[in-house]
Structures are given as C-alpha cells and as structure tokens.
C-alpha cells in the first residue's frame, strides 16, 4: 500500500502487533499502529486519538488527545481484553488546520491463557500396525529412515443452527492441514511452524464461519511429522531426538450463537483416527502420497466410503501449558513460477527448469497413470557437467517426492507437508510432460514486501533480485541458513548479518518477534545464547562470537527500524544475561574463554584472529545493551553496561591496536569490526581507514571477508569517505565478489564466494549451498548507500531520515520503502551535468538530504534556488555536497554535478 498523494493527512496500513487484522492475539497490551500519507508538503499531525470498541460498538478504551500527535503507534492500555473477542479500533489524525481523517481496523484476541483450552492432543494409536506400515518394494528407505505415515483425524458434529461466528483454534505437534466439510481451512502452509516445542507450541486461529453448515458437519485434519518428529538439521537422528516421536493434533472449534453462547468441538477421544495415504511426509526426505489409499469423502459429513481403517483417536497428551498464539505471519504459497523448460532426458524421465532457485515444491498434472504406477520428483539447485540433476550438496536430504497412482489416469500432485530448495526438478514415471503441466510453488513466511531498489546497472539489479530470493527462500517459519540440504537451521549469525537487508526488503517485525522467543528460549541458565534457534539437538549450545551476539544485535536493530520499544523490553534481561555471561568468563575483557564453537569470520578468505573478533563483539553487545537500557529508562543498567563497554573498548585498543591504527590480524574484517563498532580512539580512525582501504585495493579491489565482515564492508567504507571503493567491490565480477556467481548462473546468493568455478567445478559437496543469504547482506547498502535511503543514527522508526545517495559510476538509482511511518522514497539520475534527486518524506518525519554537487550555490528545489524553497533549509556544505533539512512531503533537488 502506498500513500495517497494529492490528499490531506491520512492514516493507512493499520496494524495490531505488526499484523493486519490479526485473529488470535494473546498479547495483553497489543501495539496499535498506522502509517501516514499526505499530498501536502510539511504536513505533520497536530492531533491524534485512538479509540477501541467492542464488536457491538460499546466503548472500551479511548486515548483522548495523545501527547505526541506525530506518534504512529500506541500501546493498548484499556481494561483487560476478553478472550476470543473482536475489538474494533479507529485512529483519528488531525492536521494543523483541524481537519480530521479517520481509519478503522480490528483485531481479535485468542485464548489468552492456556487454562482456557479444553482440547487434548490426539493421534492414531502408534502401537496399531496396519497395512500402511508394510514397506513396499522400491519404497524410499521408509523402514531405514523410520519414516512414518501421516495421520488423519476427524470428528462429525451437528450444528443446530448456523453460528453467527465460528473460529478454529488449532495447532499440531508436527504439521497440520485442517478441513471443514471438505474445504481446506485457511491458507497457512507448514503450520503451526517451528518452535522449540518443549517450551512453546504456537497455535493459529481461522475464521470458519462460512464453512459451518446447519445440520451435519465434519471437522477433519491430517497431521505429519514436520520439525516435531521428522528429520531436522544435520543430525541424522529423528524419532524423539529433537522433540517428539509421532504427530498429534490439538484443536477447538468454537461455534458462537446469536445469544453469545458457544458450542465447542474439541479434540478428544471421541474423534476418529486412521493412517493417511501419505505413506511418509518429511521436510528433508520428501513426501509419498499413495492415491490407492485415498478414501474420497473422508472429510465430508457423510464420512465417505470405508477402507481407511478408522479407529477411536488416541489421546497422546493433555498438557496445554505451552500453547501460545503465533505472532509471526504464516508460511504461505506466495507465488507460482511457470516451468521455463521441460526436456525429456530419457524414456520416462524429464528435467524441469524453473529458471529460479527458490524454496517450495512442484505441482504437476500427471497424465497416463496406471494404478500403482509411481511418479518420482527429485529436486536440485544445479546441474552437473553432464547436464543431470546435481544433488550431492543436499547431503542426506533426499528431497524426493513420490506419487503412487490410484485408479484415475490423471492426477494433480503437489506435496503438502514438505518443502525443498531447488531450481531444477527431475520427474520420472510419466510418458509425457508439458511445460504447462508443471508449476513451481514458492513458499515462505508471508512477510509483507516493503521495499524495492533499482539502478542503472542491470547486474546490480540482478544482485538485488538474487538477495531478495535468498530472503524469500530462507524465511520459512524461522530465518534459516539454507533451504535445501539437511540443515535449514535458524543460525543466529546468518540472521544477524542479514537482518538490516531483510528489514528493507520486507516488513519482518512480526516474523522476528516470533523468532526472538526462540532465541530467548534457547538461552542457557548461564546466560549464553545459542548458535541456532529454535534449539535443536546436535548443535553446540553456547553461542559463538557473532552468533550468540545476535541475541543483542537483532532486538536492537528491530527497535531502530520499527520504533517499537517492546523489542528492547522483551529482550533486555536476556541481553544483560548474555553480556554478563561473556564478562563473567572473561574478566580481563578479552573474550577468549567460553566462545562456543568459535566460527570466527566464517568462510573468510583471510582469517581474522579469534580474540580480535570476539572482543569486538563483546564491546558491541555491551554497548548496545547499555543503549537499550538507557532507552527503557533502566539507568543503573545503562551506566553499568556503558562502563563495561568503555572498558572493553579500551582493552581492545590497548591489546589489538598499534599507535598507527593497525589492528591485529590486519584483515579487512578486523578493521571493519573496529570501525563499525567504534572501538578505536578518534585519532586512530584515519590510520585504520587508510589501512582498510589499502587492503581492499591490494585485493583487487576485492573482498576477503566472511559472514561477519561482509555486511559491514560497503557501509564502513562509505561512512569513512571511500564510497568509491564500496562501488568497486559492488561491481567487481571476479571471485570473491557478489557479481561473480551471477555471471555463472546464480539466481540466489551462494554460501561460498566460489561455490562453482568453471576451472574447478563445484566446491566440496559437504558444504556448498547455492541459496544462503549471509553474503547477500550487502543488500542493505544498495538502499542506504547507492539509493541513499536511510535514517539518522539517533532515529528510530524512520522519524528522522538521512538521504545520502552514493552515485559512484551509476547514472541512476531509486528505492522505495514502506517504513512504519509511511512511504520513504528516493530516486536520482545523473545526466548532462545535472544530479536530479527526488525524495518523499512521510508526515511527521524530518530529513537531512545530502545532495552531491560541484556547485552548492546552483542547487535548486522544484526549480527554486534551494535557499528560497519552502520547507527546506540549508544546513551546510561539505566536500562536493550540499546538506539540507526538510520536513515531510515530496522534494525535487537539482544540482550541477559533472
Ligand atoms: C551454516 C552456516 C552457519 C555455520 C556456522 C553452517 O553449516 O550453513 O550458515 O552459520 O554453519 O558456522
């Protein structure tokens, strides 16, 4: 959604806890927020009022006149919210002339308390053996892997009258898909998503009012292993190694009648269960759907024909204490990719190219099937030298889906309970396959897309696209390192370094709010954050430098982007505990002990000394913890961590920095950390910058950073006057560089700078993902640097913008970003000696605009000399730059520039 120009001040994009019209809010004091648009320059709200009403219109809470009329959110402070209740709310914004503009939205509470549930966990009695358990010839290692069939559950019920509202509150230990009278409920995929189920199980809420009928109804579900009891990560153990052993469902359907009374249909021993025709369904191994065992109508009120082997459902557990409403957006099938080509490889084997590496699955229409015939779909990111599907880098993830044909000669096959990371699919078992019969279904957490970037260099645009696809492919319930091999873990450093880029591409506030629960949940009693979240067996528990620190860096960055102090409130104790943990074990302030599995500057061509890197992160985490405490008014903590940060900084300088500004290790990353984290005494900064620039120049100009240095290199060079070098790196095409993979067929960012080279072929298959976003963290600088769309260092929630384009050798660039305050955009061109810069600043915000020019006196705004332009004041000149301050609105600066 974008602001409506030409109109007066208008709120839009209303959100509750960063979600539009959410069902199932368990937060007692949700955040109500909106964005602002206005077609008038300098518009800023003069009045603000938020009112919350019950669904019937009765007043519940009224802010009255809000003290800060330019605020774009308020926290609900009214009487305790009632469970399972819809609230309507309005925001009224008044402009300086007294004209009011009002927008309305709603949110609906969830169960609010685990005690409100009456449902229990049900499944199919795992001790009952039936025909599904017998392995079949050619079965994909069913017995070897211990894979098990998904389970079906159902309950027939009567509705005396059509309810005025019906809601399904549902979750699974495993993955669920629910159906009501034969129709699928909702569009969430891979629900309820991945959490450390031992601590938290998310539930979701669906409005099913339109699906309930008067008379006979059938509520039905299929549950599969998922992260709960399937394979997860690189640990080859399943079945209880991580969380649980067999999938289970917990659901309550609430039928609300006109008089306010409700009937509840809850999972219990009065349900029926059966093995499903999904002989197995596993996130890593793939899914097998046996159509011979489908019993059409099983989910209809009639119950369909017999043959499924229905039995009374088995109550697996009654504990509901860990249920919480999910706060993150669900995974959805977000878009579809047509097959770019389909080629017959041999007899019944076809190779499909979707032209894009992504996470999701294949939907295909299979024709000419014979009963019992198998269609097998394998997935891969690349082709080998012989042009065949390359799967060695998937390690033990078989990523193979199987359809076993039933009576019908034609069937549509789309797996339900798995996903893969791939560009190519190999389909076996069909006599023909047309491109129109195959579709790539793209799955990811449905974070609303919020930003876009483009510039005059098509290679850089392609890089931005590849980075964005890396984000789509790896934000699947939690932020993962990669979507294809037997890993797909919520590695903390990957998320931390990519977060600034992610926040500009999409609104990830709710997504990361959910993930941070997992980060906190994985913290050890000693205060150590983990290396991955959700926590999982097989990964060392204590966070490495840069990995564990994500527990501090992520909430801090989210606060800055979204201006929501709850990111700090909810995490401050955990942040303090982490810094205390590092401090306690390293009283000399050089972080050498308790470094977890110290991954250093992961995959860096030039290794940075571990103590340098760790101590830099120690200082950074202490400093940000102090800032967070200060913002929350926790003065004692702010002073304590502030002093600690100063001491660590001093120790860093004494220990690792020579009098001419050289940092131990003398690597790019060593300087980047020292400069980005402000660890150097002012007088040593110029020397350090010079040395960093030399190292970049000596390398080509080129990069020698790994995961921890890569996101810093362009911003740091830019911040210290070397945007020219940042541009040189950006546009370099030899390895290591961002454009090199794109020259060699990449459509997503690779894990390694040299994942494939024509000279050597593929990097070692043991670790060679072609869809890893960490090295794509340069994406942030495309927005902030190249296009110049940024906020001032002290600003949160884009209240004070910093517009500072870095044209380099480009002739144009533009970026748009839906901030929490409203649309921010920049667009510049450089043509015929004129630099032309358009800027949009949302209402209530201010901006400092840096205009590159050779002649500050010749700068105009909308054709008027800038000194006379309304709403603009000249703030100063620097080397080849004029600085202006503006209020909100649209501005167009033109400036002489060779
Ligand atoms: C993952 C990384 C992760 C790393 C830890 C790798 O296997 O793919 O992205 O951060 O391990 O060093």
TrEMBL record:
Residues 790-860 form the Alpha-L-rhamnosidase C-terminal domain. SUPFAM superfamilies: Six-hairpin glycosidases. InterPro entries: 6-hairpin_glycosidase_sf, 6hp_glycosidase-like_sf, Alpha_rhamnosid, Bac_rhamnosid6H, Bac_rhamnosid_C, Bac_rhamnosid_N, Ig-like_fold, Rhamnosid_concanavalin. The keyword Hydrolase applies. Residues 164-334 form the Bacterial alpha-L-rhamnosidase N-terminal domain. It catalyses: Hydrolysis of terminal non-reducing alpha-L-rhamnose residues in alpha-L-rhamnosides. Pfam families: Bac_rhamnosid, Bac_rhamnosid6H, Bac_rhamnosid_C, Bac_rhamnosid_N, Ig_Rha78A_N. GO terms for molecular function: alpha-L-rhamnosidase activity. Residues 450-786 form the Alpha-L-rhamnosidase six-hairpin glycosidase domain. GO terms for biological process: carbohydrate metabolic process. Keywords: Glycosidase, Hydrolase. Residues 345-444 form the Alpha-L-rhamnosidase concanavalin-like domain. It is an enzyme of class 3 (hydrolase). Signal peptide: none annotated. Its EC number is 3.2.1.40. PANTHER family: ALPHA-RHAMNOSIDASE (EUROFUNG), ALPHA-RHAMNOSIDASE (EUROFUNG)-RELATED. This is alpha-L-rhamnosidase.
